[in-house]
Amino acid sequence: xxxxxxxxxxxxxxxxxxxxxxxxxxxxxxxxxxxxxxxxxxxxxxxxxxxxxxxxxxxxxxxxxxxxxxxxxxxxxxxxxxxxxxxxxxxxxxxxxxxxxxxxxxxxxxxxxxxxxxxxxxxxxxxxxxxxxxxxxxxxxxxxxxxxxxxxxxxxxxxxxxxxxxxxxxxxxxxxxxxxxxxxxxxxxxxxxxxxxxxxxxxxxxxxxxxxxxxxxxxxxxxxxxxxxxxxxxxxxxxxxxxxxxxxxxxxxxxxxxxxxxxxxxxxxxxxxxxxxxxxxxxxxxxxxxxxxxxxxxxxxxxxxxxxxxxxxxxxxxxxxxxxxxxxxxxxxxxxxxxxxxxxxxxxxxxxxxxxxxxx
Length: 360
Description:
Layout: H1 21-51, H2 76-90, H3 96-122, H4 130-151, E1 159-161, E2 169-171, H5 175-194, H6 202-219, H7 222-228, H8 239-257, H9 266-283, H10 287-293, H11 295-314, H12 324-330, H13 335-355
Antiparallel strand pairs: 1-2
């Protein structure tokens, strides 16, 4: 919206600053942060009154979690509202990538919201039926991948690029839709698995968003992408604004989610944020880099898959409890120890992922 003020730069030169992507990204970050700060308390109080008993606590979970009974969930609403407000205000409304990413974010957020709603109203940790939920998520992701493929130049738009290799590009053809859908849906659910402790998910989400803020800015800039010898994808630089909004909204949410949490993110936020990051990765052609930057999310999701498969095959468990952060809780690690150590891992993985931009 503010981007349109740049049209008046011939009358007042100050308005020219709204053309600068860096200015608008910083503006989106501050706007999202202030939005969550200002409206967060009202949203928390409203949800607490509406939800009564709050998010149900798993009976088979760590004993330390029972003190959190009564804490409201769906805190992802404040994050999503902050992201949308900041993006609409600061992003270029003519850029289709912005609307694709927002559509996936809100679509996944609605799925997560319904899941949280069922858990709260039924007072059960069992929410939306898994197969149906994945089907809806996949439908949203397929539509997004088709739109992304339609925007890019032929062949490259449906291709897979690999970190480190300069020229190696694999054309996936129509299989790109399946691959992109796997990345987006996988990212959404991986972040969802990670969201189990106060502040655990939002920290790595902000770290991943900061990484893809830089990646989208570089990939969408012809000069920088040529210098780094990475593939240029016109228009994706605008996604830096959304990533900036994620960081700002995430910081605001962390203020209320820091131990002891006043509110939980819930599936409303975790599914939406994971889907957002996954869509940005697909749009910028850095899907493999996402697996490195978001390696913590991959580890959390893999621990659940391994636990389920191994238990069905042998009747035994690999971990004391899955996802893996609960395994460490069972081993005696305190919640702050797990959160801080997992954040450190996320930072190291993010640096490793960003290093691939230069190792070519």
